[in-house]
Amino acid sequence: MVDFSTIWTEKYRPNKFEDVVGQDEIIKRVKNLTNSLNLPHMLFAGPAGTGKSTLAIIVAKELFKEFWKENYLELNASDARGIDVIRQEVKNFARTKSLGSVPFKIIFLDEADALTKEAQQALRRTMENYTSTCRFILSCNYSSKIIDPIQSRCVVFRFKLLERKDIEKVIRRIAEVEKITIDEKAIQALYEGSEGDCRRVINLLQASNSISPVITDEIINILLSSAKPKDIKVVLDYALSGDFEKSRERLLDIMLKDSIAGTDIIKAIQKEIWGLDIDPELKVRLTEKTGEVEFRLVEGSDEFIQLESLLASFVLAGLGMKKL
Amino acid sequence: MPEENKTIPLFEKHRPKKVSQVKGQDLAIEKIHFYLDNFEKGDLKKKAILLHGPAGTGKTTLAYAFANDKNHEIFELNASDLRNRTKLDEILKPSTLQKSLFKKGKIILVDEVDGVTSTEYGGMSELINLIETTKFPIIITCNDIWQNKFSSLRSKCELVQIKELPYLIVVEILKEIIKLEDKFVSENIIKEIAAKSRGDLRAALNDLQSILHLEDREILEEQVHLREKSQSIFEAIKEVLKLRTNEKTTEAFENVELDLDQIILWLEENIPSEYRGEDLAKAFQALSKADVFKGRIYRQQYWHFLTYENFFLTAGIATAKGPKSLQQRFTKYNPPKRILKIWMANQRNAKKKAIAGKFAELTHTSKNRAIRDFSILTLITTEKEMKEMQLDEEQVTYMQEKKQELLSELKAK
User: Fold this and answer.
1) Could you give the CA distance from residue B343 to residue B166 in angstroms, rounded to a whole number?
2) B400 in A contact zone (CB under 8 Å)
3) In angstroms, how far apart are the furthest CA atoms of chain A?
4) FRET partner for A298 with CA separation of 20 to 30 A, picked from B181, B298, B359, B388?
5) Would you say A217 and A69 are in contact if contact means Cβ atoms under 8 Å apart?
6) Rounded to whole angstroms, how far apart are CA atoms B213 and A59?
7) Which residues contact B395 (CB under 8 A, 6 or more apart)?
8) Are B292 and A219 a contacting pair at CB < 8 A?
């Protein structure tokens, strides 16, 4: 019996290469590699919700058919349990031979960029030790955070954000099966809130549907705002008025209250800037600064210190100083 | 004599003598047991065991405790012994090749192998020789085993990770020792010391010692321990934030006992109490650049970047102040509050994080994403999933509460 998940992201997760939306080039190449049974280690790099896990599962399903679950191990590197646990699990999994005609098993390591450089070195050795029995598929958001020795051992695939037409295709497909009424405006709202993340679109769609069978942009926007950092405007207003200490205190409270990541805060700040009541030239400078800080966060700097330096620039802007 | 006792550091005085007294390292202990038992039988491929992990987590303590339990003698070798080949031959060869005349056996301990250089003649290679020929078990301790110079050593040793001690265990040990010392320390201070230690028990006990000492002199202010330890940090911060730059500015933090990571937090906390407006912005730009270099050191392990980190923290911040900021008034500097706040928030958000983690596993997503969209997820999670995720009663209630919150918010609109 097939166990249908009630979570739509699982229920509608594609099972075949042909069903994946977007990433056409990647799908073609991975499909070829899979069919040839000559699979290298692979690195899937790209934003969340663009099909990395899905594709890994499809590779396993294509290779092992009904035995895919026995021959596929999914691990998440950001689990705080550390590289030693990962190595132990790999060891246990790789000890037995794969079932069927395929001479290797698949290990999917999600969020490999969460590993420190040292842990990645250890992972590299693990990959080498088990090459005869296992193929690794690593996934990460930023390939720059993966050490060169690992990148050089993998075929790297760069996943792109999903385009509007792809997102719309997914929405229509689900709406038809679930008998949802959805209009153009709501689809646009879903697309705008998705940030190119297919999983988020489907979650939003399912959440809206749990409230009403007719989905409007209004419902979607309310749901989106519930997942958005609140009161960022207040933080910026404090900074513009010159009260740096209040501003940063408020910011820390907001971040800690709901465990919001620095990168989500910075996106919210960026969206606020254009609507602020300041000289347009200042808005340009502030946006430039914001981009620089976002870059630093992605690089792995201390979130709060970097955000504070941004708030200090807002203090300057509040004084009308254009040299930020 | 109490006078004598004072001179022994707490962590030496209360160092566990038996393995059973060592807390929080059960897995490692099991592995060391296995190694020592099987070494005696002589059927081990890897003839040395290597304990690696951060400072103050009990690596050396474990070696001595095992020796004590097994009635073995510890034979300690340090980096310089290894470098000195003739000395090493002289001391060691006889002891490894012939069984000791005494009844009890020996354990060779190579403590802090990080200090051994790979280039120097007779360092690493001599150690590997030793491992191959030894008749006695060898325990090696090391902070960072993933350095290149250890690649061959790693393959010769059974690796055992010694983890940072969990917060609660540090608290437990602190309380035990305070009791043994027959002292009183408030719960808050104990917690703060434990949180600050980040699993480094030696650091925690050193901090504890500094306040026990102060209590002797009847100074009982809540925050006093932080001040005592940070006596020089106040001076150093003043030098950077208040005084005119001089040729000594870049050395401001040289004699501070805190490491740069903590100094960054101190500066972060206190810059706004000295600087305003443009100066403030410049100072934070310098601080954020120092932080960027700190990140690069961490990722590349290229320690020369420390020079730049330090430069921005001292001269960078010091030169940010314009003439208006040079003032003589007294400023009260505060210890950093952020880490404690983060820690407390983590305790509060633990439930949400645990649920988000389980949801992430169920739907092949990342935990951070699940945390961000938590409110949305409460709407789509049915009882079936809650069962699948094996949520306990509290977690189920938590999810339902959050769902109701969102629904009533929706209704209001």
Assistant:
1) 13
2) no
3) 71
4) B359
5) no
6) 64
7) B351, B354, B355, B386
8) no
Are A182 and A206 in contact by the 8 Å Cβ rule? The answer is: no
- Residue of B228, B193, B201 whose CA lies nearest to B214: B228
Measured CA to CA, the distance from residue B225 to residue B174 in angstroms comes to 15
On whether the CB atoms of residues B372 and A226 are closer than 8 A, the answer is no
Check CB contact under 8 Å for B364 and A258.
no
pLDDT tens digit string along A72-92? 999 888 775 678 888 888 888
- Candidate from A6, A49, A118 with C-beta closest to B384: A6
Task: Give start and end residues of each alpha helix (H) in chain A.
Answer: 8-11, 24-35, 52-64, 82-95, 117-129, 148-153, 164-178, 184-194, 198-211, 217-226, 232-240, 244-257, 262-273, 280-299, 303-318
Is the minimum CB–CB distance between B27 and chain A shorter than 8 Å?
no
Give contacts of A311 with chain B, Cβ < 8 Å.
284
Q: Cα–Cα distance between A86 and A76 in angstroms, integer? A: 9
Token pair belonging to B222: 């809540």
Q: How do beta strands B48-52 and B138-142 pair?
A: parallel
Which structure tokens are listed for B30?
A: 């099991």
Report pLDDT digits (tens) over A223-266.
888 888 888 999 999 999 999 999 999 999 999 988 888 999 99
Distance from CA of A40 to the nearest CA of B (A): 22
| Closest of B140, B178, B204, B142 to residue B11, by C-alpha | B204
- Sign of dihedral through CA atoms A237, A239, A241, A244? positive
Distance CA B306, CA B283 (A): 18
Whether the predicted pLDDT of B91 surpasses 80: no
- Whether pTM > 0.80 for this model: the answer is no
List of chain A residues whose C-beta atoms are within 8 Å of the C-beta of residue B312? none
Distance CA B274, CA B293 (A): 24
Nearest to A222 among B280, B364, B410 (CB): B410
Q: Which sign, positive or negative, has the C-alpha torsion B124, B127, B133, B139? A: negative
Cβ contacts of A76 on chain B, cutoff 8 Å: 360-361, 366-367
Q: Which of A252, A300, A315 lies nearest to residue B338, judging by beta carbons?
A: A252
Write out residues 63-92 of B within 8 Å (CB-CB) of A.
none
b or e along B223-255 (b: 16 or more beta carbons within 10 Å of the residue's beta carbon)? eebbeebbeebbebbbbbbbeeeeeebbebbee
A-B contacts (CB, under 8 Å): 168
Its ipTM equals 0.77
List all residues of chain B from 281 to 300 with a beta carbon under 8 Å from chain A. Answer: 281, 283-285, 287-288, 291-292, 294-295, 298-300
d(CA B187, CA B196): 14
Contact across the interface for B381 and A7, Cβ inside 8 Å: yes
Separation in Å, CA of B364 to nearest CA in chain A? 7
CA triple B379-A198-B384, angle to 5 deg: 35
What pLDDT was estimated at residue A85?
82
Does residue B65 contact residue B28 with C-beta atoms inside 8 Å?
Answer: no
Tell me the per-residue pLDDT of A181-201, one tens digit each, with 9 for 90 and over: 999 999 999 999 888 899 999
State percent of chain B over pLDDT 90: 25
Residue A301 has its nearest CB partner, among B291, B379, B410, at B291
Which residues, 6+ apart, have CB-to-CB distance to B66 below 8 Å?
Answer: B19, B32, B36, B72, B107, B139
Q: Is there a contact between A309 and B288 if contact means CB atoms under 8 Å apart?
A: yes
Cα-to-chain-centroid distance, residue A287 = 23
